Amino acid sequence: MKYVLDTHVWVWSIHDPERLAAPVRTAIEDGEHELLLSCITYWELEFLVRKGQVDLGGDLSSWLEFAHREYSITDVPIDRRVALDSQSRDLPGRDPADRFIAATTRVHDAILLTQDRQLLESPAVPSLAL
Question: Which residues pair with 38 in a beta bridge?
Fold first, then answer.
């Protein structure tokens, strides 16, 4: 199974896994699944750190190195298919990062791991049922 990690899910999986719903935590920790990360996640995380909304307990570069050692994650670039799908009318919300992450999920035939209600409730985005 392929899973795309939403930004908050990725951060919580490292810093506070108890915040994750049990099915999400199990999917990440299983080791049998392919974990994907949209490259927009790096942009969003840096933005959130700079705004003071996320505290990684140190500098971003060190945290990224640690996070990639913690779990085997495949970076997924924003290619033409993802860019075009991110503009689809059936995707929920207006947040560009969420739209790119949702489009990455669809284009790569994966399941989104998120706790974002708007994404979870959208029939347009395959997500893990909580």
Answer: 76
Domain 2-120: CATH class, spelled out = alpha beta
Q: How far apart, in Å, are the Cα atoms of 22 and each of 7, 27, 28, 88?
A: 17, 9, 10, 31
pTM of the model: 0.94
- Across 1-130, the runs of DSSP E, i.e. the strands, are 2-5, 34-38, 73-76, 111-113
Q: How far, in Å, CA of 104 to CA of 114, rounded?
A: 13
From the list 112, 89, 88, 130, the residue with the least C-alpha distance to 6 is: 112
**To 5 degrees, how large is the angle CA 114–CA 79–CA 84?**
80
How do the pLDDT tens digits run along the chain, 130 residues long? 999 999 999 999 999 999 998 999 999 998 899 999 999 999 999 999 999 999 998 899 999 999 988 889 999 999 999 999 999 999 999 999 999 999 999 999 999 999 899 999 999 999 986 5
Query: Cβ neighbours of residue 94 under 8 Å, at least 6 residues apart?
Result: none
List the Cα angle 17/23/25 in 5-degree steps: 25
> What is the residue extent of each domain of the chain?
2-120
